[in-house]
Design a protein that fits this description.
Radius of gyration: 53 Å
Largest sheet: 6 strands, antiparallel
Shape: extended
Number of strands: 36
Strand order of the largest sheet: 3-2-1-6-5-4
Distance between the termini: 95 Å
Strand content: 25-35%
Number of helices: 27
């Protein structure tokens, strides 16, 4: 029908407007009943020559459109390519077309430029989607007809009417063939698109879907009509959009021919779907971008299966490596392909040292085992099991069971070994134990017996006779004797249980007491089964002495009662304790005693540790976060020993407490709960502060008279040297005592500054090796008889320290080494770099420090009692001050001692 309508357009008698109207009518047959218009170029303008379903006002606007007007139609003429814009995509640059679309209420504009030989023209229609390939081919044919029609009307005829008509008929025949081919091509294209096993779509340059198949709709969860109203940008996951847009821009720019991308779409129901997207760009005859062809494959399940496969492979590998039994995989040449850790340990080789090497290389490890024969039998039979002995990596003989399977995978052979060395030893030991058990049964506490009702006799083992206190010489007793042995209070119940079993040929079990011949009362457990034989009924049973078990049960009950009393005692102790106690079990249930309520405020049942409504601070006043609370730290496995923590009270007071906390675990180490103990040391802190102030005041006040004594003694010594030489020695003793007293006062002041945290440091870089040598030289008189050997191990950075205080540290340690070291023994000073610190070790030879004195070594006023005989001058503050000075520098100090050999003091200092 389209071809026939177009054929009529080629009549020479038609006017240009009639030709345009015919072309427009044919276009609407292809595109549907949409508003359409056709403009023809003339004198730099586009003139409206035909329109359909276009409002009159819009037609008047299109009467004359300048070729430089901001309209989609003029842009299509200028660019000589088809343009498609939705209504919401018409920006300010296309203001004229935007006004037309709004006025005519059109969804968008598609403009198709027509290229006659002498004139410019454009066919436009109101539509939001671009042409699909079939429409593109038909509309191209329409363009050709319009060109031919316009040329036939306006150009001079150079041929006779007959030749022109023949040409027209030929053109009609060609057009019919083209139309038939187009229909066939369209049908093939539709079938390929619709029946494709993957999602397929044709997409405009703006991203709007033009054609979609059923598979794509199923993947995205949209109906076809819904999907055609969307762009791919609208349903792409936001995190994947930027990558996709970048690839599209590179594709349009011609930098890539196509691309594939794993991305996520958002289905209609909001779910994410992972797809493998392949995109190609179709260009027109001029090479301009036309539309995209996209292929979408849902790989969500594939990736899930791949992930599951990787996890299974990881699990298999984990099981393979974690298997306790050695596993070996060999190829057809008996070369190692893989081994697990147990096999490597057994063979004493690393995996990389085994893989690729032949099993034959380990033949010397096998004891009395023909490896080649076993390998041949495995390949021939397909499987092989047996035992072998092998020497492991340490040379020990191991007994192994092996199970081998040939070709468990193509050209791969599996061998699983099991170390039965211990089992073999156990079986041998079991055989010995069975023999011993057979001998021990004679003295076991369980005896067996048999009651023959027809013969009225009870046959029993020696142990049964022993339990009842009978003589085993005759080998049996009568039923009356058995009844006499049962305690009268238990006789009726025991007899009833026995006769009930006899009547139904069943079993019985009963506990009862027996009266032994020696007068003792014992508790036994008797059980047996009655069986009817041709000769009568017999009861087979065993008797077990459970006197001790019953006694144990009684003791257990007493113990439970004692535990209850102990718990009551413990509850009372906790509740009346003068220190605050917080307990929390493994379920988070907290318990607090009365002192805890007084100290921390009322703690209702169910209060969690982090909900305690008090402010905890460190010793320096810095607040403690909820996760830093003592009980929380103990719940996390940390142990606190006498840590100082301050608690802010509601009345503004700050209480100083000494806190100890620890997790509570059972014997197996499993967590049961945690405990925290708070001891109010506010009064002790006040006394400590007063003591420190007193020490500081006393030391300060003593320094002035000591200084005066020292000055006067020096003056007298100088005068005595001239006038009374016999007094010089005595004055020197006075000066020495004054200097010693001055040092003691200095130590007291240092202790006061350290404990009050008022010690100031003037730090600067210090080269430790030369510094230590200089200090040793200045102390030469005090260190008389001891050579100080200073060495630096490797490259050592300079320390960041106060030289005055650092000399005090060196002096204290060197003096201490001289006092307590062996007479005349050298003192070593070793300096080494340890990370971002410098470590200094002062080593002296001597008796060493006993282990029991090491914990008090750095305590105040403490002097070792067993290191050196005789009195040692000083207050016992040297090491205490030394530790304070080192820690003030940010370092650490420790001491180690080998009794009878050496003592080493090691301290660290930071580097700049």
């Amino acid at each position: 029908m389209v071809v026939l309508r177009l054929a009529r357009l080629l009549e020479p008698s038609l006017a240009p407007a009639e030709v345009a109207a015919g072309v427009l009518e044919a276009a609407r047959l292809v595109l549907g009943d949409v508003p359409a218009w056709l403009l023809l170029g003339q004198n730099g303008e586009l003139r409206l020559v035909a329109s359909a379903d276009l409002p009159p006002e819009s037609a008047r606007r299109l009467a004359h459109v300048p070729l430089d007007a901001p309209a989609v139609e003029t842009e299509a003429v200028h660019q000589q390519r088809r343009l498609c814009f939705r209504a919401d995509e018409l920006g300010p640059a296309l203001a004229w077309s935007r006004a037309l679309v709004e006025e005519a209420k059109l969804p968008g504009v598609v403009a198709l430029p027509l290229v006659p030989s002498e004139r410019r023209a454009v066919l436009a229609f109101g539509r939001a989607t671009d042409l699909d390939p079939s429409e593109e081919e038909v509309m191209g044919a329409l363009c050709g007809f319009f060109v031919r029609a316009v040329e036939s009307v306006h150009l001079p005829h150079e041929t006779s009417p007959r030749s022109e008509m023949e040409r027209i008929r030929d053109e009609i025949v060609r057009c019919r063939r083209v139309e038939a081919d187009l229909r066939d091509s369209e049908e093939r294209f539709r079938l390929v698109l619709e029946e494709a096993p993957i999602g397929m779509s044709l997409v405009s340059l703006t991203g709007r879907y033009q054609r979609v198949n059923r598979e794509l709709c199923a993947i995205l969860g949209y109906e076809e009509s819904e999907l055609l109203q969307r762009r791919w940008q609208d349903i792409t996951h936001p995190d994947d959009l930027e990558t996709d847009l970048d690839l599209v821009s590179r594709l349009v720019a011609g930098r890539i021919a196509r691309y594939e991308l794993e991305k996520r779409y958002l289905r209609k129901d909001g779910a994410e779907v992972l797809v493998l997207l392949g995109v190609s760009l179709v260009r027109d005859a001029r090479g301009a971008p036309w539309y995209f062809i996209s292929r979408v494959q849902d790989i969500t399940e594939q990736r899930r299966l791949e992930k599951a496969l990787r996890e299974r492979e990881a699990k298999f590998r984990g099981l393979f490596d974690a298997a306790l039994d050695p596993i070996i995989i060999l190829d057809d040449e008996a070369r190692f392909v893989d081994t697990n850790a147990a096999a490597c340990q057994l063979l004493g080789r690393r995996r990389e040292d085994l893989v690729g090497h032949r099993l034959e290389a380990l033949r010397s490890r096998f004891v009395d085992f023909d490896l080649r024969q076993a390998w041949g039998e495995l390949r021939e039979q397909g499987s092989r099991t047996g035992d072998l002995r092998i020497r492991d990596g340490g040379g020990d003989l191991r007994v192994l069971e092996f199970s081998a399977r040939a070709n468990f995978a193509p050209s791969l052979h599996l061998a699983i070994l099991r170390d039965v060395t211990e089992r073999t030893r156990t079986e041998e030991a079991l055989r010995r134990r069975e023999q011993q058990l057979a001998e021990a049964q004679a003295i076991a506490h369980v005896g067996h017996w048999e009651l023959d009702l027809a013969a009225d006799r009870v046959y029993a083992s020696a142990e049964a006779f022993r339990i009842y206190g009978w003589s085993a010489e005759q080998g049996f007793v009568t039923r009356e004797q058995l009844i006499e042995a049962i305690h009268p209070d238990d006789l009726e119940a025991t007899r009833a249980a026995l006769w009930a079993a006899v009547e139904v040929e069943g079993s019985f079990s009963v506990d009862h007491r027996i009266l032994c011949r020696d007068g003792a009362v014992r508790v036994v457990h008797s059980r047996g089964t009655a069986t009817r034989y041709p000769s009568g009924v017999r009861v087979l049973g065993v008797v077990q002495d459970i006197t001790e078990e019953r006694e144990a049960e009684r003791e257990r009950e007493e113990l439970v009662a004692a535990l209850g009393a102990e718990r009551t005692w413990l509850d009372t102790l906790i509740e009346r304790s003068p220190v605050a106690i917080l307990l929390i079990d493994h379920k988070g249930r907290m318990r607090a005693n009365q002192r805890a309520h007084d100290l921390l405020g009322t703690l209702p049942a169910g209060t969690k540790p982090e909900e305690i409504d008090v402010r905890f601070c460190g010793a320096e006043g810095d607040p403690i976060a909820p996760d830093g609370m003592p009980l929380v730290r103990a719940m996390n496995g940390e142990v606190l020993q006498a840590e100082e923590i301050c608690i802010a009270q509601e009345d503004g007071r700050i209480l100083a407490t000494l806190v100890s906390a620890a997790p509570i675990r059972d014997e197996a180490g499993d967590y049961l709960g945690a405990v925290a103990v708070f001891e109010d040391i506010t009064r002790l802190k006040d006394l400590e502060r007063l003591r420190e102030e007193w020490t500081s005041v006393v030391a300060h006040d003593l320094r002035q008279p000591v200084t005066s004594i020292n000055a006067q003694a020096q003056l007298l010594a100088r005068r005595a040297a001239k006038t009374a030489p016999e007094l010089t020695a005595k004055l020197e003793h006075i000066l020495a005592s004054a200097r010693q007293l001055n040092r003691m006062i200095g130590d007291l002041l240092d202790v006061s500054r350290i404990e009050a945290r008022r010690l100031t440091l003037d730090r600067q870089p210090v080269e430790l090796e030369s510094f230590a040598i200089a200090v040793a030289e200045r102390m030469a008189e005090e260190l008389a008889g001891h050579e100080v050997q200073v060495r630096a191990d490797g490259d050592v950075q300079m320390a960041w320290a106060d030289p005055v205080r650092l000399e005090q540290v060196f002096a204290n340690l060197l003096s201490n080494a001289a006092k307590y070291g062996a007479a005349g023994a050298p003192i070593e000073v070793a300096i080494a770099q340890e990370g971002r610190e410098v470590a200094v070790r002062v080593i002296n030879q001597g008796k060493g420090i006993p282990a029991e004195e090491m914990p008090q070594l750095f305590a105040r006023f403490y002097r070792a009692r067993s290191v050196r005989e005789g009195p040692v001058a000083g207050l016992g503050l040297g090491l205490y001050i030394t530790r304070g000075l080192v820690e003030a520098h940010g370092g650490r100090i420790r001491a180690t001692s080998e009794p009878g050999r050496t003592t080493t003091f090691c301290f660290t200092l930071p580097v700049p």
